[in-house]
Amino acid sequence: MKTSPSRPVVLCLSGHDPSGGAGLQADIEALIAQGCHAAPAVTALTVQDTVDVVDFRVLDRDWVIAQANAVIADLPVAAVKLGMLGSIEMVETVLEIMQSLPGVPLVCDPVLRAGGGGSLGKDEVGYAMRERLMPASTIATPNLPEARILAELPEGTADECAKKLLPFIEHLLITGGHGDEGDVHNRLYSRDGSRHTFTCARLPGSYHGSGCTLASALAGRLALGQTLPSAVETALDYTWRTLRDAEAPGRGQYVPRRLPLDFCS
């Protein structure tokens, strides 16, 4: 059997979405599309569909640590992607896991609300993510409603939220599309004062799993060695294409098409 160079490994610490639109399935598909190998460790189980989340259960921390340690002992982890954590205890669990991965890029997708609006964690989880987890992360990728929760600014603009959050993290990508703007403006802020705005055309409809797709694609690009601003731009372009080609398999939101139709042909 002919062997080829190994694909970069990305450890995903996320929840499971049985609809397949978001969560670990989104992570896996998006990372495959970047040419990476996804190593998924389940943090939570959810009851949800493409309409909204009904309930969730956070896994026992020992199970999550055991999953992550099995991956770390066996595979060369090049990046870590965080999704739904759901509890303060799981925030602390991630920090413990990251002690075994010094210098490895950590992409924090602060999943606090489902696309349909349902809660995926109590408000104090957002506080713990800001105070404890963001300082250990390379970049966080909140949408504007999540950034407002993290910054405790219910009506804050992206600039106002970034000013409040940058003391906690070196890089912050606040994604747009949640207001009345004609085009979507995604803003990358860095603690050194640099700022990049990436603009794309607004697409009709709403989408289930777009944030998971973006954060996973970004983790994959960093695992491949791409510099951060370039990785952000590549991940945003990829995510926009998955939304452009999205499908509606259920009664609710569109699901991004993260892999081409002929992927398995």
From TrEMBL:
CDD domains: HMPP_kinase
Pfam families xrefs: Phos_pyr_kin (PF08543)
Gene Ontology terms: cellular component: cytosol
Membrane spanning stretches: none
Superkingdom, natural source: Bacteria
One of the GO BP terms on file: thiamine biosynthetic process
SUPFAM superfamilies (UniProt xref): Ribokinase-like
InterPro entries per the UniProt record, alphabetical: HMP/HMP-P_kinase_dom (IPR004399), PM/HMP-P_kinase-1 (IPR013749), Ribokinase-like (IPR029056)
Protein name: hydroxymethylpyrimidine kinase
Protein source organism: Pseudomonas matsuisoli
Species classification: Bacteria, Pseudomonadati, Pseudomonadota, Gammaproteobacteria, Pseudomonadales
